[in-house]
Amino acid sequence: MSSMDPEALAHELLAALSRGDTNITPPSARDASFDLAAAYATEEAAVRLRRAAGYVTAGRKVGYANKAVWRIFKLGTLVWAHMYNDTVRFADAAQTVALSVGHLSSPKIEPEIVFRLKEPLGPSGEIDAQRVLGSVEWLALGFEVIACPFPDWKFQPADFVAACGLHAALVVGAPLPIDTSKVGPLAEQLPSFKVKLLKNGQVGAEGSGKNSLRSPALCLGELAAAIAREPTAEPLAAGDLISSGTLTESLPMAPGETWEAVVEGIELPALTLRCEP
Fold first, then answer.
1. φ, ψ for residue 124 (rounded to 5)?
2. Backbone phi, then psi, for 176, in 5-degree steps?
3. Residue 18's closest CA among 147, 153, 170?
4. Residue 109's CB: how many other CB atoms inside 10 A?
5. Alpha-carbon separation of residue 206 from 47, 83, 198, 216, 247 (angstroms)
6. Mean pLDDT by 10 residues, the chain (277 residues)
7. CATH code for residues 6-276
8. pTM surpassing 0.85?
9. 178, 187, 256, 274: which sits with the fewest CB atoms below 10 Å from its CB?
10. CA 18 from chain center: how many Å?
């Protein structure tokens, strides 16, 4: 059991992220017993601190949504952290958001599928994409912006969770409402659709829905099941936004750049992010 105090560590990591620090020693490098249980206790302390400061949780972001990575880090499932009302931004009518990134700790960008739940989603036997989508109000193309207080982006999964999942911002594009007629087609499209991530008009990375645990819908189902197995975790709730894992590799970003995500094989418009100082 880790001897590190969750609230003190949450204070430290929140302050480091807000300052844009990149020189914080990962908790796992300070204490070999710092594990995921200690990390979730730290992340929950960060939630309490942010709520006490007046912020509202908006949902969850997913990390390590790739079973090959699970084998490398000896994980049994994905991990998660909270998002907040001050970190979520919605695109305008032109599908564009301007975001200040100059203060962030070595920021990177990830294109993701974002879900909004219309009802609580819990475990129910085998994870099924259509069952999961039946609990979703809408989905959208999004960008998650992540920032890392640890040197050279080197950390363990427990460090990732403790540092609020490295979450800096979520940019959400136009929502695609999901009714019963769309559940079946979307369940088929989500594993196979393609995405291109462009920096200043040039393709920087390509991916597909299968990169998020074979399908973003399956990733959402796995998240609900994993949260249900964590004794102290708050369950997912109606209205929660879920950022369901990156569809391409994460790429470094900087002020002055324009990023665009373009998809093929699913009914979602392109999304643009302008990076400001």
1. -155, 70
2. -105, 105
3. 147
4. 29
5. 34, 26, 9, 16, 8
6. 93 97 97 97 98 98 95 96 97 98 97 97 78 97 98 98 98 97 97 98 98 97 94 94 98 98 98 98
7. 3.90.850.10
8. yes
9. 256
10. 18
